[in-house]
Each structure stands twice: as C-alpha cells, then as structure tokens.
C-alpha cells in the first residue's frame, strides 16, 4: 500500500497557519484557504510558529477523514456546527 498525500497543505499567512487545496505558492503569493479567506503566503521562518486557523484545521481533518482530537466541533455539511 502506498502513502497518498492529502490534497491540502498548510501554508502560513495573515498571522495564522491556514490549510489550502491550492498548489504550493511562493512567499508573497495570494492563495485561497480552506476557511474561505484569501491570504498572502508568508514563508518567513517565524510564520510557521503561528497559531493554526481553527476552521482550516477542522476542514483539514474532515478531508483527511480523521476526527478532531478531544471534543472538537461537529461538522455538518462541511460547516462547523454552532459556529458564528
Ligand atoms: Zn484558515
């Protein structure tokens, strides 16, 4: 069995670590994220230490078919139940 990479990748930008389905982009490029935001990719070293964007994290777990650890929010039709 071969390892299949998930279709999303983590990319830092807009003060958080977001996940995206877009191909890997260079620093300064604009990219659409799983949470629906358009961010400017930040490939500086410290950017990788920023907090994970929660909606992106939930969406990434859903794509990977892995439940959120602990009492994560419930996902209904691709949206976080009870959010906003
Ligand atoms: Zn995000």
Automatic annotation (TrEMBL):
Gene3D superfamilies from the UniProt entry: Malonyl-[acyl-carrier protein] O-methyltransferase, zinc-finger motif
Record-linked Pfam families: zf-HC3 (PF16827)
Entries under InterPro entries matching the protein: Zf-HC3
Protein name: Zinc finger protein
Organism: Saccharopolyspora cebuensis
